[in-house]
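ERR on first pass: missing label on line 2. Operator R.T. fixed the label and resubmitted. Corrected input:
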Amino acid sequence: MIEKTSYDSPEYDVFKSNVKKLTGLDLNSYKNQIHRRVHMLMQRWNISNYDVFFKTFKENDQKLREFLDYLTINVSEFFRNPNKWTELQDVILPRLIQSRGKKQLKLWSAGSATGEEPYSLAILSMEAKLAPQTPVLASDIDQGAIALAKRGHYLKRQLINIPKELVGRYFTTSDGGETYIVNSEVKSRVSFQRLNLIEDTFGDDFDLILCRNVVIYFCADTKTALYHKFFKALRPGGYLLVGSTEQIFDYRKIGFESAGAFLYQKPA
Ligand SMILES: C[S@@+](CC[C@H](N)C(=O)[O-])C[C@H]1O[C@@H](n2cnc3c(N)ncnc32)[C@H](O)[C@@H]1O
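pass 2 clean. output:
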């Protein structure tokens, strides 16, 4: 049985500081649910002490992967929330192309997990015939997720939202049709970078930032600080798309205008 430890106990403080040193993940910036998840995983591994728990994943890469997966929840999908992608394709990209041309758009999937979102952006940019050098930045705090994303191998069921003709155009299959591999042309449009959204500084002049299903465990102040950073990173006229449960209530205070559901624009 796990000892009853409060989330502000000295033992948990030491654990948080060890996790930060090892992974860069600052559990203090997250809501208390993250503490519950830590405990759920300890229970699952049948460990009742933070030191033993920490050592277990520090000394074993696979356990570390499991710990980070469990805490940061890497789950993603291609074209997740398809309606939003239709809006991006039919409304937002054409507007950006009209004002900025096809050569220079800077797109960013912030919290790119195992690659489905940045590859969806790259596919969209190829469909819109954006210049090949149009960069899609994909960033995540989790190195393991980035490694999987770079590999670009997916199971058939993960492609469920992708229209058939796009699958044919942008993927090849192996394993008798069970594994789908992202084409090298799509891959070449995406550059992956390890970045901690809470602590690291961002580039600038982005035209479109997607940050979806990343901030669920962030506490309110952390979220607000992040949205200010995104505002700064956008070019005037640029857009921020958040997840479909992640409405920004004080978007006006930050400087954004509403551009539709879960979509915010920096005034031009
Ligand atoms: C559920 S996935 C979202 C993937 C994709 N955006 C989507 O909507 O399908 C959340 C991702 O956010 C990443 N993440 C969590 N905290 C982060 C942080 N502080 N900085 C950067 N990435 C973070 C996790 O590693 C995870 O890969």
